[in-house]
TrEMBL record:
Upper classification of the organism: Bacteria, Pseudomonadati, Pseudomonadota, Betaproteobacteria, Burkholderiales
Annotated source species: Janthinobacterium fluminis
Highest taxon above the source species: Bacteria
Protein name per the record: DNA-binding protein
PANTHER family: DNA-BINDING PROTEIN (PTHR34988:SF1), PROTEIN, PUTATIVE-RELATED (PTHR34988)
MF GO annotations: DNA binding
InterPro entries documented for this protein: PPC_dom
Keywords recorded for this protein, A-Z: DNA-binding
Domain PPC residues, every copy: 1-129
Presence of keyword Metal-binding: no
Amino acid sequence: MQPLTLRLSPGQDVRAALEAVLAEHALQAAFVLQGIGSLDVAQLRLAGAAAPTALRGDMEILTLAGSLSLDGAHLHMAVADAQGRVTGGHVAGGCIVRTTAEILLALLPGQRFSRLPDAGTGYAELFVAPARPA
């Protein structure tokens, strides 16, 4: 495992920036261990919902965690609005950094993550295998 710390700047899309990490480092697997920062827009798919909900305004990222694979990211985030109300869910594209986002990743050079259909859950779930040669 190799740690990597990212600092995202105002206007960056959190999910897009994280999904780009594997290609930038020629890797096939990573975990987001934690993230904090602020957002102008949070696009979160709430539990059981079919589509993301857009939250707008000054928000603080309380926690960000998940996995990164060549098939995309599986990320969860909790945010607090200016009144301290907390909302959490799956991170969709369009979570836009307000001032900064500080994110700690664990790069996993010996592993490959992918998402495969799971008959038990009905969703594409994490599948872990040895990394393929470059």
